[in-house]
């Protein structure tokens, strides 16, 4: 009687431990209050400062537009090129020293500047070297899409580019196919580039307060890594039903093996 009882206890333990808790699969939980409530959370986003390898889209407009054709890429070299390819060839890439090279204006250091500050720098340089105030210079500087990479326990691994000014972590993950139940939503890693190197930041996507995190909005060249849960390494199912099937299969194999040995 003791052996079947011990086997039953062992199977129940495996069953309970190997299941992924329901709360670990949910995003944006209100962990500070017992009841649901509507909270107003202030998003924290600082202006993005340009980094090495960023690609900038720069457009210059003046009263006589023919005078600025040399500054504005035509973008018709390859009509079959994708938007990303055109952005690469027509844009201005920030080199390892933080500089971009603009026709007639030469090198301009943009490392650590916001796009608004770069617009002002270009306008001042144009007024000092090329035009007068009466030219009515208008400069726009934008990032040529927000490029990021996802890998680990996520449905869509690889590099993606979204053509919008800001993207939060949930939008990035949704565009990567979402995180499966076997992915650790409580400790998602964001590897971010800084002038002094790369840093790793941790965020908990199951906590509603993630929207107040300074890393809630991703930045160009971010890498998002999702760690697998231990349950995946154990090779068990993610739900109770899957575990029942796995346990039944194991019991069937054990029973068959015992019967075969008894007949020998």
TrEMBL record:
**One matching Pfam family:** Poly_export
The protein's matches in InterPro entries, at most eight in alphabetical order, are given as: Poly_export, Poly_export_N
| Residue stretches in coiled coil | none
The residues covered by the Polysaccharide export protein N-terminal domain are 43-141
Keyword Oxidoreductase assigned: no
Keywords (alphabetical) are: Membrane, Signal, Transmembrane, Transmembrane helix
Task: Give GO MF terms, alphabetically.
Answer: polysaccharide transmembrane transporter activity
What is the name listed in the Swiss-Prot or TrEMBL entry for this protein? Polysaccharide biosynthesis/export family protein
Enumerate the transmembrane spans: 240-261
Q: Which domain of life is it from?
A: Bacteria
Native species: Snuella sedimenti
Lineage of the species this protein comes from:
Bacteria, Pseudomonadati, Bacteroidota, Flavobacteriia, Flavobacteriales
Q: Does the keyword Metal-binding apply?
A: no
């Amino acid at each position: 009687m003791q052996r079947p009882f011990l086997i039953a206890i062992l199977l129940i333990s495996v069953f309970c431990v190997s299941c992924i808790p329901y709360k670990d699969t949910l995003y944006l939980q209100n962990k500070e209050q017992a009841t649901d409530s509507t909270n107003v959370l202030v998003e924290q986003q600082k202006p993005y400062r340009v980094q090495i390898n960023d690609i900038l889209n720069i457009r210059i407009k003046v009263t006589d537009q023919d005078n600025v054709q040399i500054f504005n890429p035509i973008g018709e070299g390859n009509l079959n090129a994708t938007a990303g390819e055109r952005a690469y060839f027509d844009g201005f890439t920030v080199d390892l020293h933080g500089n971009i090279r603009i026709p007639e204006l030469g090198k301009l250091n943009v490392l650590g500047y916001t796009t608004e500050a770069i617009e002002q720098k270009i306008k001042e340089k144009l007024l000092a070297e090329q035009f007068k105030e009466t030219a009515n210079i208008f400069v726009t500087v934008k990032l040529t899409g927000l490029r990021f990479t996802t890998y680990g326990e996520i449905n869509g691994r690889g590099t993606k580019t979204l053509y919008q000014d800001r993207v939060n972590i949930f939008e990035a993950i949704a565009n990567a196919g979402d995180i499966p139940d076997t992915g650790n939503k409580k400790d998602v890693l964001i590897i971010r580039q800084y002038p002094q190197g790369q840093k790793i930041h941790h965020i908990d996507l199951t906590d509603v307060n993630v929207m107040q995190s300074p890393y809630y909005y991703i930045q160009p060249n971010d890498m998002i890594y999702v760690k697998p849960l231990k349950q995946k390494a154990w090779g068990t199912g993610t739900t109770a039903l899957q575990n029942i099937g796995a346990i039944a299969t194991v019991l069937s194999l054990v029973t068959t093996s015992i019967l075969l040995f008894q007949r020998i």
